[in-house]
Amino acid sequence: MSKMLRVSKIPSDATEDALTFFFENTRKSGGGDVEEVDYDEENHTAIITFEEDDVVERVLKKTPMLFQGKVIEVEAHMPDALDDSHPDIKEAEGDGNYFAIHVSGFDTEKVPAETLKLYFESRRGADVDVNSLEKVEENAYILKFEEEEAIDKILKKTHKVGGKQLTVKRYIPPPPLPKYEDKVFIKGVSSSTTKDSLFNFLEAKSNAEPIDIIYGEEEGTALVTFDTKPDIEKLRQQCKKRTLEGNYLNIDHVTVTNTIVATGFKETTSEETLELYFDSKKKCGVDGVTKVKMNQQLNQCFISFDDYNSVDIVCNRKHKVDGVEFKVRIHQECLGNPADESQSLQFQLPDPVLIENVDKWKFVFLKESPENQQKMNEYLRPKHARINWSTINMDEKLEVACTLESTDKDCRKLAKAWSAVIQKEMSTYLSCINVSKLNTIKEAMEDVMKEIEGMHTDSVIIRNDQENNTIVIVGQVVETEKISVKISSVIKDIEKEIDEKKSQIEDIFRSKPYETSILHCIRFQEQYSKKKDGVEPPPLIDTTDDIYTDYYTTLDADRQRYTLASSGP
């Protein structure tokens, strides 16, 4: 067990001496000789380091524990210092206890990695287990073994897999890159910690002045540069014992990098153009580019050199390609995609996202239904977003606000991608709202709307688009499809009824004004009604286009009879 004990809820009037005396009193605390006390009066906590290993276990058996009349909390302190599992340490130390081969020349489609591994574990290969297999190129792997005899056995043979002769050679790892003497990589920085607070803390613990900081993509990480070489081991030990705003800082060396990141270049500038530029000593002062990787989405390009000294040369020059000046800075893999130089660990709430050109009927569906508004906000809640519906106008725009807070885990990282995520999520949600449109004839619209009045539900709205003689059904896909089927049936029945009435119109009788007058005189309507079992004819109107329904033959016969009578002797 650790020699260190963490004590919290210490009375505010307690002194460091009082703590020391208490924990050296075996009868009262179970403690023993104290090597060091690191007392944080501001947070009422302390790290007690004992001289012997078994003291902490004795103290823990005495809990609950009273100190100056108040209960204090004690626990074994195991600082989360970086160990050999950290990627930078692994890179520096290498993996010295292995022997490896570099294998290439095979067809990756015919020979997957597992097949390659099984081959070299068989009698045809080394006849021993492969410790690990790492892909280093498109069709090249490094295979690691525990003993050098395995490598010797492999190299004495020729190897053929998948119908192709393999190229096998001993792999000698490159020497580890050196470490920066004036830089440290830090994990565990609180989001509430300012740059000044961090610098003051580091200076007090290292006796060196911090002069620069780059915040990493991962929450709470930063790379700090000092004016002189700090004692990194001493700083690491000090940060195990004392917190900064409640957090223990993890301190580690920083491996010298051979990579830069270029930002702010013209969007049309290609990866090849940047590679040619940075591989020209005449243009940028160096050459020897080994790798170029473009990130079009973020308008970034990562460039690696065979000589890590090239990085400082490039970063100390100005650069211009395709008529645009752009920035270049050192890239450290441990920082991920670091924050901009203008940013800090202070959380900055993203601006609201404005979703424009929302479908008219989808907008109405959301605006008029509190239930649907609630559903949408429930969908957005895990994405750290919400819509304030009270401020939404009928302009087919939706404003989505960010609900992230500085206390949320990885808040800065989430904030960085928040806008793009919300644009995508809103598009997905709106695409799930279905708009179904059913056409009908103008004469049927009023009857149809009366008939379907009771079909409205909380999850579906029905509207009358009179301008286009259309019934609009908006809602979730399944519900709108069900209601659309019902409304289609109603429209069909009403239109059929109207068609049947229209079928009674057999012809159109177009009369002249004087003919209309004569029909009035001969009491045509009364006679028509008697002949047709009381069915009322249409009214006679003095126009040139009167329309008479149903019985054109009767009308025509009366007209002919009148014509004959008027033409008699």
TrEMBL record:
The keyword RNA-binding applies. SUPFAM superfamilies: RNA-binding domain, RBD. Transmembrane segments: none annotated. One of its GO terms (molecular function) is RNA binding. Residues 3-79, 182-256 form the RRM domain. Keywords: RNA-binding. Signal peptide: none annotated. This is RRM domain-containing protein. It comes from Mytilus galloprovincialis (Mediterranean mussel). The lineage of its organism: Eukaryota, Metazoa, Spiralia, Lophotrochozoa, Mollusca.
